[in-house]
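chain below, 300 aa
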Amino acid sequence: MLNIALLSRGPSLYSTQSLFRAARNRGHYVRIIDHGQISLLIEQGVPQVVYEGGKLVGMDAVIPRIGASVTDYGAAIIRQFELMEVYTATRSEALIMARDKLKCLQILSASGISVPKTVIAGVPEALPRLIDMLGGTPVVVKMLESTHGVGVVLAESRNTAVSIVEAFTKLGQPVILQEYIQEAAGADVRAFVVGKRVVASMLRQAQAGEFRSNLHRGASATLTELSPEEEQTVLQAARLMNLEIAGVDILRSNRGPLVMEVNASPGLEGIETTTKVDIAGAIIENLERGVEKYAGRRKR
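prediction:
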């Protein structure tokens, strides 16, 4: 039996409850901990995590469910557990790397993974030329910290793209511009990786008049099978981000699968409901194997 800390700010959320039940069904003790209420005690040689007035001790494993708005502090908490030699399902540096959309795309593309052609403007004056490099309009403008499709805009014209970028820049929000993949027709694929395999995948289709295929935006979801090329791309993307648990989003384009994003804390509700796959159970099984291997390395 493992003593598991499930870090989540929403104990009633679907993903949190699904993981909680899966761990309990396999005989583990699991405690849901609001990481927003965690304090860190940093002392020479004795890293500690403080919660509800006491020190958290005796943990075998941590499953982080860290929201994008608290990435940095969430990563610091994970790092503290790592320093305490507790196995974490998601490593602190992996979370930070995947959450940085620009860095993620840089690493993937440099490693041979196909991604949508992307630019970031150092100065607004460079935008017209950069848009030409993307193949012209329309282009997708994305905030670097966008989630659930918020801060993602389709600019139909050059002037619109420039205006949107200028507006975001004045608000202190850095953005990237990406080519618009017309043949994807408002659809993308979310593949869920656990360990070294893809456990489930679904096709998300944007509703009429919308290009964003996020389920939070009213998109529909259906079961889909990955091609061998898509599966290889997805697994390689997760490996490059050093993630054991990942939601990898790809676009089906005329030049093959394009990785849009690698999500380090993917939600379970949409994909479990659509595919009927017990993904939470797969995560707990992978956690068990990870703890066992980690314990073996520590003994050596």
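The chain has a mean pLDDT of 91. The domain at 3-90+281-299 is CATH 3.40.50.20 (Rossmann fold).
thats it, cya
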